[in-house]
Amino acid sequence: AQSVTQLDSQVPVFEEAPVELRCNYSSSVSVYLFWYVQYPNQGLQLLLKYLSGSTLVKGINGFEAEFNKSQTSFHLRKPSVHISDTAEYFCAVSDRDNFNKFYFGSGTKLNVKP
Amino acid sequence: DAGVIQSPRHEVTEMGQEVTLRCKPISGHNSLFWYRQTMMRGLELLIYFNNNVPIDDSGMPEDRFSAKMPNASFSTLKIQPSEPRDSAVYFCASSPQPSNQPQHFGDGTRLSIL
Questions:
Q1: For residue B63, what is the DSSP state?
Q2: pLDDT tens-digit profile of A57-96?
Q3: Do B100 and A90 touch (CB under 8 A)?
Q4: Are B19 and B76 in contact (CB under 8 A)?
Q5: Per-chain mean pLDDT for chain A
Q6: A10 — contact with chain B (CB < 8 Å)?
Q7: Could you give the CA distance from residue A4 to residue A7 in angstroms, rounded to a whole number?
């Protein structure tokens, strides 16, 4: 089974500052990688996904993530955050050989301060 | 396009009562997932179906929980009898084949057991 580790449970940052949310997973064999965002009282929405090809993936709302196979990481970045980015962010791994089963990290709460 | 539809959005009931949560996946999606989210345990996968067949129910906490998918457009998660520790937000998600496709989440059912 896969496991996903999000090292930071909370990340406070000031508006317009850059941010990186870290994600590591247990195996680089046969996986797809995703980042989701959850706003208060809502379900999870897809931010971006890595399937293959270029290791730098761009998503919605100005976010991007870089796949690093040797470090089994998929960190999420944004060069300049906005107050509206305050939300919880989840990293997920999909096991190619296991019927779309996703393994989610524990989430990172991003708190953007004015 | 309609997304994943869950009902009810909120449910408050007394312990010992039967609770039924409902989910309508996105049309054409082959896989359906039930998750539970709490502050203490984060996002937990309870069970998932592929082509209406339960594939993995190892996340179902105990026999009080049961899930069915009688057809491709409907699923239920039932708790009988309910207990206060079942209070959580329950999410349903669906995805198409193959496994490189993201899961699409409903808005969740916020369940409170008194």
A1: T
A2: 999 999 999 999 888 999 999 999 999 999 999 999 887 7
A3: no
A4: no
A5: 91
A6: no
A7: 10
Residue A102 sits at the chain B interface (C-beta within 8 Å): yes
* Whether the Cβ atoms of residue B96 and residue B6 lie closer than 8 Å to each other: no
CA dist A97 and A91 (Å) reads 19
Q: Which three-class secondary structure state does DSSP give residue A84? A: helix
Q: Rg for chain B (alpha carbons), in Å? A: 13
- Residue B66, token pair as written in the block: 């049961």
Identify which of B89, B93, B83, B92 has the alpha carbon closest to the alpha carbon of residue B109: B89
Number of helices and strands (H, E) in chain B? 0, 11
Interface test with A, best of B23, B30, B43 (most A CBs within 10 A): B43
Q: Residue B96: its pLDDT value, please?
A: 87
**CB < 8 Å & 24+ apart, contacts of A85-88:** A85/A19, A85/A61, A85/A110, A85/A112, A86/A110, A86/A111, A86/A112, A87/A37, A87/A38, A87/A39, A87/A40, A88/A37, A88/A38
CA separation, residue A7 to residues A89, A90, A97, A107, B4 (Å)? 12, 11, 26, 9, 30
Q: Is B101 on the interface with A (CB under 8 A)?
A: yes
- Establish if B103 touches chain A: CB-CB under 8 angstroms: yes
Residues of chain A positioned with their CB less than 8 A from the CB of B106? 43
Distance CA B3, CA B69 (A): 18
| pLDDT confidence of residue A98 | 66
Rounded Cα distance between B80 and A106, Å, is 28
